Hints:
CATH topology: Spore Coat Polysaccharide Biosynthesis Protein SpsA, Chain A
Strand order of the largest sheet: 3-2-1-4-6-5-7
Structural class: alpha/beta
Low-confidence stretches: 1-12, 267-282
Strand content: 5-15%
Helix content: 40-55%
Number of domains: 1
Distance between the termini: 38 Å
Largest sheet: 7 strands, mixed
Bound molecules: guanosine-5'-diphosphate, magnesium ion
Amino acid sequence: MPQDRYRPHGAAGAAVAVVIPAKDEAERIGATVVAARGLPGVDLVIVVDDGSSDATVDLALDAGARVLRHGRNRGKGAAMETGAEGVRLVEEHEAAGGTVRTPRHLLFLDADLGGSAERAGPLMTPVLEGTADMSIALFPATRLRLGGHGFVVRLAREGVHRATGWEPEQPLNGQRCLTRAAYEAARPLAPGFGVETGLSIDVLRAGFRVVEVEVPLEHRPTGADLRAQTHRAHQFVDVARALAARELRPTLRRSWEGAVHGVREAGGKLSRKAGHITRKKR
Ligand SMILES: Nc1nc2c(ncn2[C@@H]2O[C@H](COP(=O)(O)OP(=O)(O)O)[C@@H](O)[C@H]2O)c(=O)[nH]1
Ligand SMILES: [Mg+2]
């Protein structure tokens, strides 16, 4: 195993832990894990099996991942939290053994990337270099199809835009690298497939910097069969829920802003600060 895999990387000297949520991914999980383990800076790969009924667990173990299991299906957001908690426990164990280290950054990868996961390096770069707190991958193939214009993608994109002022190109892309501080700001993660939408909103609202980075990754093409349609329906419900849980705040803010504006118009004297609505950094 090459030594440089264990060399501390980045300005803060943090290594990276990969967290892979997986449900019935026997076909691809092995290749995804092997590729993830080979990424420079990565010294820990955790697969969270979310109640698979196939050989996902055994294949992930064979490929060298640490595996956590949900006895029954709890959804993608819950699996990602379980994985991050696993990273925390590993670090606690390391600290008890006398190894004090900077908490690892988290790199969330979908289980269906297969061997293409070996090309995820550039996604980590902005976080390792300290120029972003969360990076989100842009799949080139999806960009060619004009950024993904499905109705769920539009729902998520417009929702993130309304909530933060930032318009993501691929709002549902699950390949994301985060500092631990950015991750903590987004906890508890939105349930199920609302997790990406919730992460973008919560991380931005906490004032962290988010970037999208084109990375040559590929995943299982989404078809038009019944499984794909059901997946999209679940995604739709979960994204709508994540947005509903977060959009109350801007609505309240807007009415507050309107009220403040109204008072000012009427000649009231309010401090600049009270009338200023902070816009999130990109
Ligand atoms: N934890 C968890 N992960 C899931 C579930 N369904 C799918 N996934 C994982 O979520 C990721 C994205 O799923 P995928 O079917 O590729 O969706 P798509 O990329 O949006 O078409 C993959 O890693 C799946 O294994 C689930 O019910 N629970
Ligand atoms: Mg996929």
